Amino acid sequence: MKHLTRLALIALMFLFSGCIWKYSPRPGTIPVHIKSVAIDNTKNSTAEFNLGQEFTVLLTEKLMLENLLPLSDPSVAHSVIYTGLKNISDAVFSYDETDVVKEYRLSLNLDFRWYDTANSLDMMQKTLSDYEIYYSDSYNNTLSEDDRVNREIALDRLMEKLADKVIVELTSQW
Length: 174
What we know:
alpha/beta, Double Stranded RNA Binding Domain, five-stranded mixed β-sheet, 4 helices, 5 strands, elongated
């Protein structure tokens, strides 16, 4: 009986300590004075027309879906996210068996900064990069409509990936 009581006590200790661990606040939570965020227009240092505006809209939509913080105008927001697109490049990724280009690699870099307006300091600053593969016209023509990936599709996917990376970076620090 004594042995069973000890086991029950140990089990209860693990149960209660598990609940405490589960519901305790994590280190690195968002500062209490940050109640809103604004997204500044994305600077576009690439030769791609409207890429900055498209990224700003995409990031805004993702932040709204995630419901991380209320979005606000930059003039009154407690924090601002600044982004900049740069260094977009296309490079041959692979050749087919007859040495004709089969795939290209589209790469893009994004600078982003999360700024605390109340304390006038950067809370986070990073450069993110990623890539997507797209197919040459000749290879796309051999594929079904659903399997084709042209540069435009690759660029859309790449922008999505970079916006997702910004969200991950922001939330991983909270």
